[in-house]
């Protein structure tokens, strides 16, 4: 699925969790990791040298951790504003995807979704795996991603972008033979009265569209494929599924120009990324 990824690290303790998430991708073909830490200049030669020395040691430690897991690892510490620097580095090295974390410390600082993560979502045209990384009060990792694709939740609106995202799900299922939930939310905001009058007919039509996807996944080795067609707010119902703790990752297509045109308008993909407690793999339109 992904042979080479760019892993964004801020070298903080929570970023160590990203290394665990990367390890799970080895099962679906990952071979090479470009480990990148974007560096702001301190404008103080003495302080800058001290900071760089510490960061270099942490970078080497993370590199060795990944190498011990069997990956080919290259490191870079480019100078510049993090988000544009990271996305430019991804393009320069032609990686297949970007992995980025969000938490309350370091360069990923700001509420549930860090400002750097948000900017990368704006800028990149590559698939991006966003992982919530946090520590508890005892400075221990709150999540475990040993089985990232053990129970994917695939959300579709039947768009071309969703079709592109489905091709990635096919590769996951073919390799790991995991159970899957396919979900399409009937959006209440489109026309509630119209939907309520024809809800049964619309449900039947949507199930008919989801059934070929289900049959394809079963043919690839999925032991179980559930179909869910709830009625209501897409972002709220998807997040409700996430909170059920029955799924290991959300896979869905993004929408709009570039990567997330509707970011400031509260798009479904942005809302899911911002609030999801489990990893989210977003596939952009250009991957169709």
Word description of this protein:
The protein has 288 residues and is an alpha/beta fold. The protein is built from nine helices and twelve strands. It has two domains: 4-132, Rossmann fold, CATH 3.40.50.620; 152-287, 3-Layer(aba) Sandwich (Rossmann fold), CATH 3.40.50. Strand 6 (152-155), helix 5 and strand 7 form a beta-alpha-beta unit. Helix 8 (234-243) runs parallel beside helix 9. The longest helix has 24 residues, at 45-68. Residues 104-113, 137-141 and 256-266 have low confidence and may be disordered.
Number of strand elements: 12
Which band does the percent of strand residues land in? 15-25%
Main sheet attributes: strand count, strand direction, barrel closure: 10 strands, mixed
The parts where pLDDT drops under 50 for at least 5 residues are 104-113, 137-141, 256-266
Mean pLDDT: 83
* C-alpha Rg (nearest Å): 20 Å
Q: How is the largest sheet built, in terms of strand order? A: 3-2-1-4-5-12-11-6-7-9
CATH class of the largest domain: Alpha Beta
**Level-2 CATH architecture of the largest domain:** 3-Layer(aba) Sandwich
The general outline is elongated
Proportion of residues in helical segments: 40-55%
Order of helices and strands: EHEHEHEHEEHEEHHEEHEHE
- CATH fold-type name of the largest domain: Rossmann fold
Number of domains: 2
Protein name: Universal stress family protein
Family: Belongs to the universal stress protein A family.
Domain UspA: 1-132, 153-284
């Amino acid at each position: 699925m992904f042979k080479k990824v760019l892993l964004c690290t801020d070298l903080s303790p929570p970023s160590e969790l990203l290394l665990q998430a990367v390890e799970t991708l080895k099962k679906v073909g990952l071979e090479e990791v470009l480990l990148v830490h974007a560096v702001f200049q301190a404008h103080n030669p003495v302080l800058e040298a001290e900071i760089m020395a510490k960061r270099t040691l942490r970078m080497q430690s993370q590199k060795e951790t990944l190498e011990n897991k069997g990956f080919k690892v290259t490191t870079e510490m480019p100078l510049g504003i993090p988000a544009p620097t990271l996305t430019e580095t991804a393009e320069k090295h032609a990686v297949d995807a970007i992995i980025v974390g969000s938490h309350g410390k370091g360069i990923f600082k700001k509420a549930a979704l860090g400002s750097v993560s948000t900017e990368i979502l704006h800028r990149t045209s590559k698939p991006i795996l966003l992982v919530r990384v946090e520590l508890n009060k005892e400075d221990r990792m709150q999540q475990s991603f040993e089985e990232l694709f053990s129970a994917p939740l695939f959300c579709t609106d039947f768009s071309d972008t969703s079709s592109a995202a489905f091709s990635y799900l096919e590769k996951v299922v073919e390799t790991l033979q995991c159970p899957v939930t396919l979900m399409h939310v009937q959006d209440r905001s489109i026309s509630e009265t119209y939907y309520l009058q024809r809800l049964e007919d619309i449900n039947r039509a949507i199930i008919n569209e989801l059934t070929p996807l289900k049959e394809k996944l079963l043919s690839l080795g999925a032991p179980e494929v559930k179909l869910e067609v709830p009625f209501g707010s897409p972002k709220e119902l998807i997040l409700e599924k996430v909170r059920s703790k029955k799924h290991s990752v959300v896979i869905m297509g993004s929408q709009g120009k570039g990567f997330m045109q509707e970011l400031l308008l509260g798009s479904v993909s942005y809302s899911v990324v911002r609030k999801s407690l489990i990893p989210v793999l977003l596939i952009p339109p250009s991957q169709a």
